[in-house]
């Protein structure tokens, strides 16, 4: 076996399939495009779902990629096993109704044995129990001995109704010392003695609603090979974390923490978590994801906060993640140039989130430690949901982090009790917002030149000149996601509420945060103020922003506004000049004329 760097493996894979007529495409963004079923891209084939289903025509019947992926379903196992990651790269080649098994099986064997140099006698193959076609190709065309072709029932890929089919996996034998020495260890078990390095999916059926299968007229190929796994094999490393794709980040964290990798299991786990999560957060922010309390922004926030906490566990009591970002960008910048272009932006987002969470972590950890001590003294092992919720709601301590720390101490959290307390809080918050909606706030605008503020409905950029809590008159310098805010821009395209017409809604995007505008009003001094909520990241006074007014809603309001004038004119014409408008309501859905 010849040693190869991760970059060499990536390049060799793409060149191999380019030579066989494949269009090489860059990795898609981690943010799924036009696919509400996915939170993040977690597989190489995910960006190509419309091609597999036939909804869109691919740019080529043959495509190969190295796709950035993020998965967090097993986030608690990161650092504890050799192969679990949140971020990883998936090498894949795809055929959309072009070639099928008789091409990809020999190609995959050629790539693994000749291009990568993995000895043929170290390789084992799994197929579906009934896939005689694949068996025939592996045995009679490739020449693999029958005893090294294992039939497994689980080798079938399907996700409900739609395209599906059997799959064939390539495994490499790593030696007797792997797998804990169990004599029963075989292909298909969870240990590392037989490591799966490539999965070939043969999409040849359509699963009908009634559970039956119909052969597809156009059969497809979808393969996935983990770059980190291949690197661990070719570099002779016991885990993915020791490869050149990850280990430089571990070295950085070790230096900052003044600890040595490989001496203590708990320390190694934290170093691996930091390294893995540093890659994830760097790529996620570069692709436009910002920390928030919902959706993919929450995935980012959770990853970043876990990295901070594991830094604390190994003695890092200062900010360090921006330095880890530098290491990631040095490692990957030539392959993903947007990392280099957005270096300062990525670091700024991380520094702001890390600063905020360090305050939360110090206070929350002390309070949780006290609660754990009380449980130990009482001989109890379950933290009640109300206490866990107080840590989250009052001190901003994430419930997942509470649950993780409790697990490390042999305890659990009453999640049902937590959810019940959360629902009570949400109800109270809704009622509080409804109550405050009718109370005008006289915002303190001293310090800004009102005459210099402009309203330009053709504009889409401006600068935040003043920021307030939505229900507080005194200005603030910044606001994090989840906060209700009011913002004054130097130039705004948002039309303020007035004369019965509702104010505009829309979105304001700052460099490190996003505000959903829920209303626009005019202050007594003439300033236009947008009121809403920070839904991602952090916004700051002085931020240059872009904004987008809800144009469909604005057009509906404009039509109803015109209708009020037409109605007024018609009434005057039909009933007499004494008819006068006393009031109106103009919204997107209706108008009312008094």
Structure characterization notes:
The protein has 594 residues and is an alpha+beta fold. It has four domains: 6-238, Bira Bifunctional Protein, Domain 2 (BirA Bifunctional Protein, domain 2, 2-Layer Sandwich); 247-338 and 345-380, no CATH class; 450-549, Elongation Factor Tu (Ef-tu), domain 3 (Beta Barrel); 554-593, no CATH class. Helices cover 38% and strands 23% of the residues. It has helices at residues 6-18, 49-53, 101-115, 132-142, 227-234, 247-257, 265-286, 295-313, 321-332, 338-341, 343-378, 385-395, 399-408, 415-437, 551-575; strands spanning 23-24, 62-70, 87-96, 123-128, 149-152, 156-157, 162-173, 194-207, 213-226, 382-383, 412-413, 454-455, 461-469, 478-480, 484-489, 491-492, 506-510, 513-522, 528-540, 544-549, 584-586, 591-593. Strands 1, 2, 3, 4, 5, 6, 7, 8 and 9 form a nine-stranded mixed beta sheet that branches. Strands 13-15-19-18-17-20 form a six-stranded antiparallel β-barrel. Strands 10-11 form a two-stranded parallel ribbon. The longest helix has 36 residues, at 343-378. The termini are far apart. The relative contact order is 0.07. Residues 434-438 have low confidence and may be disordered.
């Amino acid at each position: 076996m010849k040693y190869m760097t991760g970059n060499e493996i990536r390049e060799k894979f793409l060149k191999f399939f380019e030579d066989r007529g494949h269009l090489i495409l860059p990795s898609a963004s981690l943010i799924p495009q036009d696919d509400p079923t996915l939170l993040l891209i977690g597989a190489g084939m995910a960006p190509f779902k419309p091609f597999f289903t036939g909804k869109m025509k691919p740019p080529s019947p043959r495509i190969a990629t190295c796709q950035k992926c993020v998965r967090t379903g097993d986030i608690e196992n990161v650092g504890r096993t050799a192969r679990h990651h949140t971020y990883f790269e998936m090498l894949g080649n795809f055929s959309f109704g072009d070639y099928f098994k008789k091409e990809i099986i020999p190609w995959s064997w050629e790539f693994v044995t000749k291009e990568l140099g993995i000895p043929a006698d170290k390789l084992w193959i799994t197929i579906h129990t009934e896939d005689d076609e694949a068996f025939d190709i592996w045995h009679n065309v490739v020449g693999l001995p029958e005893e090294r072709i294992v039939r497994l029932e689980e080798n079938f890929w399907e996700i409900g109704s739609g395209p599906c089919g059997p799959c064939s996996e390539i495994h490499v034998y790593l030696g007797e010392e792997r797998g804990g020495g169990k004599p029963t260890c075989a292909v298909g078990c969870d240990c590392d003695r037989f490591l799966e390095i490539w999965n070939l999916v043969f999409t040849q059926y359509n699963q009908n609603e009634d559970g039956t299968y119909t052969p597809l007229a156009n059969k497809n190929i979808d393969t996935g090979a983990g770059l980190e796994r291949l690197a661990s094999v070719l570099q002779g490393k016991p885990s993915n974390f020791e490869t050149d794709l990850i280990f430089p980040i571990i070295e950085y964290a070790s230096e900052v923490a003044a600890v040595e990798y490989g001496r203590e299991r708990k320390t190694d786990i934290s170093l691996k978590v930091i390294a893995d999560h540093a890659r994830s957060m760097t790529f996620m922010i570069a692709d436009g994801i910002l920390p928030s309390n919902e959706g993919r922004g929450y995935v980012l926030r959770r990853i970043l906060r876990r990295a901070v906490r594991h830094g604390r566990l190994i003695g890092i009591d200062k900010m360090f993640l921006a330095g880890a970002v530098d290491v990631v960008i040095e490692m990957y910048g030539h392959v993903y140039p947007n990392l280099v272009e957005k270096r300062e932006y990525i670091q700024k987002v991380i520094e702001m989130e890390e600063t905020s969470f360090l305050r939360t972590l110090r206070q929350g950890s002390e309070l949780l430690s006290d609660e754990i001590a009380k449980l130990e003294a009482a001989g109890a092992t379950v933290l009640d949901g109300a206490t866990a919720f107080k840590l989250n709601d009052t001190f901003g301590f994430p419930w997942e982090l509470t649950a993780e720390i409790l697990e490390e101490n042999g305890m659990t959290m009453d999640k049902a009790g937590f959810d019940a307390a959360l629902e009570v809080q949400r109800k109270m918050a809704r009622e509080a917002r409804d109550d405050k909606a009718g109370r005008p706030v006289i915002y303190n605008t001293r310090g800004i030149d009102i005459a210099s503020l402009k309203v330009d409905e053709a504009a889409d950029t401006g600068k935040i000149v003043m920021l307030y809590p939505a229900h507080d008159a005194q200005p603030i310098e910044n606001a994090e996601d989840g906060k209700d805010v009011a913002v004054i821009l130097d130039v705004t395209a948002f039309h303020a509420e007035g004369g019965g017409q509702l104010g505009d809604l829309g979105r304001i995007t700052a460099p490190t945060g996003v505000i959903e505008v829920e209303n626009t009003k005019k202050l007594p001094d003439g300033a236009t103020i947008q009121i809403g909520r920070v839904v991602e990241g952090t916004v700051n006074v002085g931020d240059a922003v872009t904004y987008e007014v809800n144009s469909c809603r604005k057009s509906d309001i404009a039509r109803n506004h015109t209708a009020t004038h037409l109605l007024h004119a018609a009434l005057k014409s039909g009933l007499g000049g004494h008819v006068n408008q006393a009031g109106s309501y103009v919204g997107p859905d209706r108008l009312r004329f008094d």
